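Q: Protein A?
A:
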Amino acid sequence: MTAVPTAVPSAAPGAPVPPWSPSEAQCLEVMRQLHVTGYVGWHVVQGRTVLQADEAGRRMLGFHADEELGPRQFFDCVDPHDRPRLMARWQRLCAHAERVVTEEFSIWLPDGSARHMRAVAVTDFEADRRAAGGVVGLYDITAERQALQALSESEARLEEAQSIARFGCWEWDYLHQRAKFSPEALRILDMPMDWQPHLRDVIKIIPEDQREWVVGLHNDAYAQKLSTLRYEVKHRRANGETRDVHSVIKIEYAPNGSLRRLMSTIQDVTELKTYRRQLHSLSFFDPLTELPNRALFVDRLRQSLNDAAWHDQQLGILMLDVDRFKDINESLGHSAGDELLKQTAQRLHQVLRGYDTVARLGGDEFAVVLPEVRQPTDLGSIAHKVLNAFSAPFTVGGKEVFVTTSVGGALYPADAKDVDQLLQYADAALYHAKARGRNNFQFYSKELTAQASERLNLESELRKGIERNELELHYQPKFELSSGKLVGAEALMRWNHPTRGMVPPLSFISLAEDTGLIVPMGRWALRSACKAAVHWNQASDHLLKIAVNLSARQFAGDINFARSVQEILEETGCEPRWLELEITESLLLDNRDEVRDTLEELAVLGVTIAIDDFGTGYSALSYLTRFPVQILKIDRSFVKELPSNKSSAELVKAIVSLGRSLNMALVAEGVETQEQAAHLNGLGCEMVQGFLYGKPVTEAAFSKLVEAS
């Protein structure tokens, strides 16, 4: 411990005796004029230094009114790192007879907390050059120090965020003729950190072949008194590398109309554009079989229907799946199942015509568009070629396996005249074929429409089920990948039918969408999830965010949806930050102002917006910058292929990079293996959910999980 003096040394020999020797009362008056919060007074009695403090000073130093306060007690509460400096400053004060000194230091209070102080010491000197006493005024500057620290950290985070996002800013001040660039802007432009350019120098860094065009854009904007200008240029770096740089210019004008200031953000969008191209390509093809996926299949079917209508021709569609594919997966493993699907795609190509479109719709389900079908029997002939293609054994995992397929077909215009109905009828024929014992082909039959009566019965029972409170929510836990910490859950609707038991969601969710029942069901689910979120967040020591799926029909069915959400939040006491709403990409592609306005209202409330099943068929990614989306959920179909499938791995990597470049969080769905989790962690995906971490469970079961976390 630093030695604490009990007496005050005299001023240095030969030093002039201060002509001013204030009394303690005068010192206190100085303190009052300085507006200090508390003070400590001191004077020397018989060679000992005695300290006294007012009530505020004692409270600031952590001493009770009846506690002894001396030099040792004072210095003991000073942060050990500050003691040597204060002692040295004390010695200089006495040696040079300094009357007023200001210092800052930290103290530790008895409760273990730290406070930061600024002290102003006014000292009284005797005629013999000895310090006789004085007053130390104390300011508590803890809040000031914290604010400065927060500002410093905020500036550092801003610079780091700009670096991560490759997003910089600069401005040109016309009044003072000077520029200011952020560090990241200089890095993007490949310029030195001390660059102090004139405006003509800024113009020169625009590539020569694009300079005239950019200058023209600026001149046109100035002439029209536009306030914002956007453009993108190819910037060539010193090493010859070309980067895509996007600029947004904010233009300020003086009252007389002259230019006042340019403020610009610039972003290196090279990788972003690359990822967009990759997503555009990969979004239309199945990464496993390299066949068109559902989105491209539907598009080609629509084009083929238009051609058939124009030329007055027939068109056929086949839908097929691999019989007992699940058994192959379970007995030989998923890699064997994947290999079987690849070979299935190859065999379909071998037996079909070059202008037929073969697609993988998902899982083991395939579909074929057959243009220019002359007779219905032609459709049957092609279907039997498909059946025969499965007669030879497949070699998967080093073993020969025999599998069959079931095929359903429908015709345009005999069975249906639009895409959706044609797909529905072909799918109905496929299930008819499976019901007939598999390994056969069935046409769509009008008799299959009798199954519509079952749908009507289910709709009636669903309406009653809503009234009888048969619906319930199960919750699939969501974890932070790096730490394994529970961070929330996705609420999934279940229907506990009194006689049917648990009705599969696929059986009633689409029905609820079609009938509009999804609107009251969604409102009930939102209210229930908010109540649960309140309970769990009150029981947890960290934030738990509960996600609720939002259907497009539900969104469109309530013109005041944002207000409805706000009312539910207020009614249940749920904080907006505890709620996450999952929407589909199709909703964002709606292009209606109402959709954007509602999402922005929800974002203002503090509700998190997530895109569910991201990357499954849409390529118009510009909506990501137009809507307040904070989370991207990577679809399980891509995660399933990790890490062995190169195409899936590249697609997931692109999605993660895209999300991070736009400052969005990433959630991977359907994580089932440690290998998948490790791969996702390496890519920088923050959150996961899937059977590896937990299946959907009841509210009570999830409560136990919260208690254990």
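Q: Protein B?
A:
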Amino acid sequence: MRFTGSFICSVALLLPSAGMGQAPLQGRVMDARTQEPLPYASVATAKDGKGVITNEEGVFRIPSVAAEDTLLFSYLGYHRLRMAAGEVRTRHEVLLQPSVTELSAVQVVGRNDALYDLVIACGKQLRQAGRYEGKTYYQLETRTLDLPVEGVECFYNGRFNGADIDALDLKQGRIGLLPVHGRYMVNLNTSRAFMLLHPAERNSAFPATPLRYRSRKALRKAFDLTVVATMHAPQELVQVSFTPKDTGGAFFSGKLWIETATATVRSMELDCDRCTRHPFLPMGPEDELRDLSIHYLQTFSTWEGRPVVNTVALEYAYTYHTGPEAARIAERDPAFRNDWKFRTKGILHLYAPGEKFILPFFRYDAGQMDYRKVLSMPYDSAFWANAPSLVQTDRQQRDETLFAQQGLLLGTREMDPMERGRSGFFESTYAFWSPAMRIHLKNLLDSAASAPPTANADGATATADQLHLVAQLYLNVDRTPEGYRTFSATVFDGFNSWCHLPEKERSDLLLNIYFDLCEVERRRMQAALDAPGLSLERIRDIHAEAEKAMERRTAAFLKDTHYGADRQVMKRWNDLVRKELGVDNFKIFGLADGDG
């Protein structure tokens, strides 16, 4: 599959404030009438308006709040509630009263021109809403046979245009995978499905919505609209139900919450059973996706006087049918199944409109899918420790344990990109420097045709066109109340590096001393970055200067050693590395000081 994923979508994003007399606060938001939890309800402080959302079980957590602070609770279709934090801490539950008036069959109204004109105006308003940015959290889960098969968690700089997601620029990510009968199910580009749905535009990737239409005649031809509920406080909203006249799987049905005075959509819910129009593709050319259904929910909040995306939840289910090629596998494996039922649940939350992460200083192919981007980034434990925390359900905690014990963890502290078993698709082309890990390039050419030209009888001279080594100084920067926090790592780029030296022993020694020299420059850079009071501009300059110094140092090393051919000179560079890092490559690779 191109789009599938894990971690159930529960999110509670936290307030960064802290102070005297403050303590963490956790509670649950529920429907006062039914006692059902309210997922993705908003919880904000009255003082500054910053807040969190509840997870799918209605649970929220605020890391630091004073008992006298006032919290505001809101959920579309319910009366807003103000409550002191101290009272919430005592009760643990917050009950919201429904504010919706559901219309009876006799009262049903809205099959008139004004209703169709209102929906058309809403679509126009979304198309003209303009662009905005913000810090965005993303989480995705796929399950089969009641097991989690993939979990994705990412932070992005989100770029939006009205209801559309224009771009998601990765800040940090991590992935968990669990094989089922020895096979992995992966989402090749975890965020792409969210970006392909444009609710108010013509949409070839997803079923059509009523918001895309610009004329009453065309809208009436495609959909029946009905007002089914109203809400009068704090402003009048109507809930409009829409049903497609074509039930062949190319149109959504669903509901819209519309603020009538401004023709503004506050929430949309889209459903399609047995969809014939969707962006999901099977991995095998003869495989099929059958009985695919989609449920989509998008809510909006107000920022700087205009509506912006708040939360997007996407759920889809399907049967994956393997093609004729799988018949041979089935003959060898009695546990093999031709049909697998998968269900994916994902959520994307714009939790800080107008704010942006400082993206990592790292060059990678912008066209790479999210998996490759996550694999290219070393694990920044401080970022994850201070990132907006999630209220995990018991099931989520069990899922995470399964990933760690029986599957793969990518982009986490447990992941070692050079560890055995991380082969094939999951094998990283990047290596992160570690004193306990030595690296090797694959596919070294050993034929006589690749041997370097010789300058003497011993063949001590090689040429620059026989190898190309690339490393980067990865740098992650975060703003904190005390200034800027930095995290750096030395990253070897195995994708863009190659080596045609004929001797593996010589190549390994050359490669690792090269990588160690890059690490020496990183440590010097990090020492400079640890100085207090640095500006972001100065941090950028230090990083740029360190990369230039790294390039000069490694170029001098390669030239001085004749690309590893002069073993005595290599010994001197090895001594420098041993002094700076405590790593003796001659000893590690079993070479005596006088070997040559």
